[in-house]
Amino acid sequence: MGIGVGIGIILALYLGLSFYFSTRFYFNTTMNGFNVTGKTAAQVDEEMQQNAATHTLTLKERGGKTETIAADQVNMRYISDGKISQMLNDQNAFAWPMSLVPSGHQDLEATFSYDDTQLTNALNQLQAVSGADVVKVANAYPKFNGTSYVIEPEVTGSELDPAKLKEAVKNAILSGDTELDLEAAGCYKTPSFTKDSSKVKAAMDTMNKYLNAAVTYTFGNATEVLDKNTINTWLAVDGNMDVQFNQDLMTTYVANLSDKYDTYGITRSFQTSGGGNVSIAGGDYGWLIDQDEEVAALIPIIQAGQPVTREPVYAQTAASHNSPDYGNTYVEISLGGQYMWFYKNGGLVVGTPIVTGSLSGGFATPSGVYGLDYKAMNVTLKGEGYASPVTFWMPYAGDIGIHDASWRTDFGGSIYVNSGSHGCVNTPYAAAQAIYNGIEDGTPVIVY
Question: Could you tell me the domains of the chain?
Answer without folding.
Answer: 2-130 (no CATH), 198-316 (3.10.20.800), 330-447 (2.40.440.10)
